[in-house]
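explain this chain.
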Amino acid sequence: MQIIDELKKQFSVEDDVLLIETKEATQHYGKTTFSAPINIDCVIVVKKVMTIGKALKLANVLQFNLYPVGTNKNWGYGSFNLCSGRPNVILDLGQLSNISSTDKELGLVTLGPGVTQQQLYDFLTENNWEFMAPVTGAGPEAGVVSNALERGYGITPHNDHFYACTALKAFIPHPELCEHQYESALSAFDQSNTDFIDKSYKWGLGPYIDGLFTQSNLGIVSEMTIRLAPKPEYFSAFYLKVFNEEQFEDTVALVKNILKNYAGIVGSINLMDRRRLISITTENPNGFESNVLMSEQQIQDIASENQLPHWLVVGSIYGDKEVVKATKKVFKRKAKAMSIGRINATD
């Protein structure tokens, strides 16, 4: 009997789940960023938080592998290799996309695991929050919680996304505990039902446990509270194209100098090599479905055709208009003095 037939018997109407069979599951969930498409036996799409616990209980009883995904679009971070010997089931948390205000003045917001960057941005805009969504280059449909759990980063002021996480709740796979939602000691003590103390103070009481849920399979996070960065008065992005491959060390030295001396003004800096630039600007010459690496000649030809540098420095400056304007001038002088290239910045 296939695993989906067993699951149909176990889930009730009250559980409110959607079960997706092998063919459709493989088509929509089987692609990864580092392997050929993989076979998925079944997908469980949950619409209630507590159903996560039941899915874990069934995984223990029926002996299948369970792989949780938020939006299934965290490229690279969100890919996975399946284990053999047991049915492989995806637990899709994308419907758990609730966003709630914890404290608007402090910029604290609580998210479900299915919340996308676009949904968070829309929430902040529609509710007049003067705070920034912690976006990444993964795109508007990629998840916020999943990226934070994989210790992702961005170029907004709170560039370390898990560091911005102040609290979380999760389910752990232990057979006797899997149906109970984990919460911190502070949350357990809080009788107000708002969890404000827990959600406003990252480190809690005693050993810090929340970090165990990052880049691990120790549990399934069902809720996360993050602290947002306030919108600055002014913003500017800056770019530096380095066409001379021999200037890599000088480029790194410049980046380190900027990060060291302009902390609080510069969010973070992304240093991208030519292969990265090719991957985000052109199609794979070996075909979309190919897992064949590009040859050095192909890289040189594409770079030449598209005028791509060996290295691209991308960063952001935040602050008062006068501060941002002055900082841009300083960066341009530094790059010119080191003969690396010309820094361009947005107005």
In short: Residues 169 and 288 are 39 Å apart (CA to CA). The chain is about 30% helix and 20% strand. The mean pLDDT is 91. The first strand starts at residue 17 and ends at 20.
